Amino acid sequence: MSEEHKQYLKKQRIRKIVIRIIQIGILILFFGLWELSAYLEWADPFITSSPSRVVKSIANLYTSGQLFTHLGATLWETVISFILSTVLGTAIAVILWWSETVRRVLEPYLIVLNSLPKVALGPLIIIWVGAGRTAIVTMALMICLIITVISALTGFMSVDEEKIQLMRSMGANKFQILTKLILPANIPNILSILKINVGLSWVGTIMGEYLVSREGIGYLLVYGSQVFKLDLVMASTLMLCVLATAMYLVVALIEKLISRYY
To answer: How far is residue 163's CA from residue 91's CA, in Å, rounded to a whole number?
Structure first.
């Protein structure tokens, strides 16, 4: 390794450290100003709450034994909807890529379903699958699935046609083209879909819990707003941010590991 390359790598490491320090500093500054504004009553702490009151609300949930019940319920629903939407969406995209006739028939319906406000179907979902976790997962699945199908299909269709023709000229069948060219070429696209689905699955789960739930972060948000426990609302929002960030970091780690081979 040349000296210039070593210096370049050193600068990159220093740059990453500086960026991380700035990110942490912004976070500390935000919570510090938030706490100070509540303490000095620049803003009404009843409305805006404060970090200390948020921590107290979380501690009360922990003491009462409800904290991990609510966190576990929302996390389970989100992970299930995330996995189902990714697997089913990719499978449907493969089917649409495989059959041009099916793709042409279903494409307009995908566009319409994607533009449909899913929350409007909430009452129907409850009637169809019942008022429980199944309804919440179904709501999240409806939000994530169409986006996954469209994004994956777009990636499949964007593979260089000349490469496909070359494989056909060498006697490759459609299954071989799919497994040897289409899917490997779309690894970066599928990883991007995973990142998108992290956010969408959390949105869908919380929307589902708004409609029907007796536990979970969405339930805490609704309950806190109804009884004007805004400390609980802010605490639930903060816990939601932490869990969503943790899930995103897991996906980013998976992307980093897979990217070493592609």
So the answer is: 22
